[in-house]
Design a protein that fits this description.
The complex is a heterodimer. Chain A is mainly β. Helices cover about 0% and strands about 55% of the residues of chain A. Chain A starts with a strand and ends with a strand. Chain B is mainly β. The chains are: A mainly beta, B mainly beta. At the A-B interface, β4, β5 and β10 of A face β4, β5 and β10 of B.
Chain lengths: ~110, ~110
């Protein structure tokens, strides 16, 4: 299938904001997700947005969706060292080939330095 | 509430053997999904089970198979193991399909 695109690496200083960007493939995707993976662990659901929304805020997390450009972003305010992890963008495909599987990007490694 | 649990945590096999991985979904979740996270390949969809039936599979050979039991737990079986099957296998569960998928911590399968 087509690729969900994410930049591979982002480094920020503690206390700054982080913005992780993603370009997804299917304009008919109904839900878009952000997951976090810490070393040796599975995926933790951070937040998700329905395709009829432009923005969603959840504590330090803000998700922005631009459907026209198929662009999704995750902003983490006041980034902490504990936020260092790999962040995956995912779209829920809805077509006869995929059922309701998630199509993931390759992940963005976020490094937060003191 | 218990999350998605997977067993074993680690599994070491040799080429040609068979592996069985297990997943218990969150209580009340009827859909179970399996994904493979191989180095350099990212997360790839393997299989989706709902209400005991296989609903869809990803682009993997038939030696990857599984089932879902009446209590909604699931097994993933991989036959005739190959070196490239070495990966983290993640299971996710959800309520009916429009709800978010929640993941377990995975089973790391190593093929020697």
């Amino acid at each position: 299938g087509e690729d969900v695109e994410q930049s591979l690496f982002l480094s920020v200083r503690e206390g700054d904001s982080s913005v992780i960007n993603c370009t997804y493939t299917d304009s008919s995707s109904t839900y878009l997700y952000w997951y976090k993976q810490e070393p040796g662990a599975g995926l933790q659901l951070l937040t998700y947005i329905f395709s009829n929304m432009d923005m969603k805020q959840d504590q330090r997390l803000t998700v922005l969706l631009n459907k026209k450009d198929k662009h999704l972003s995750l902003r983490i305010a006041d980034t902490q060292t504990g936020d260092s992890a790999i962040y995956f963008c995912a779209e829920k495909l809805r077509n006869s080939n995929s059922g309701y599987a998630l199509n993931f990007g390759k992940g963005t490694s976020l490094l937060v330095t003191p | 509430e218990a999350g998605v649990t997977q067993s074993p945590t680690h599994l070491i096999k040799t080429r040609g053997q068979q592996a069985t991985l297990r997943c218990s979904p969150i209580s009340g979740h009827t859909s179970v999904y399996w994904y493979q996270q191989a180095l350099g390949l990212g997360l790839q969809f393997l299989l989706w089970y709902d209400e005991g039936e296989e609903r869809n599979r990803g682009n993997f050979p038939p030696r990857f198979s599984g089932r879902q039991f009446p209590n909604y737990s699931s097994e993933l079986n991989v036959n005739a193991l190959e070196l490239e099957d070495s990966a983290l296998y993640l299971c996710a569960s959800s309520l009916p399909v429009n709800q978010p998928q929640h993941f377990g911590d995975g089973t790391r399968l190593s093929i020697l």
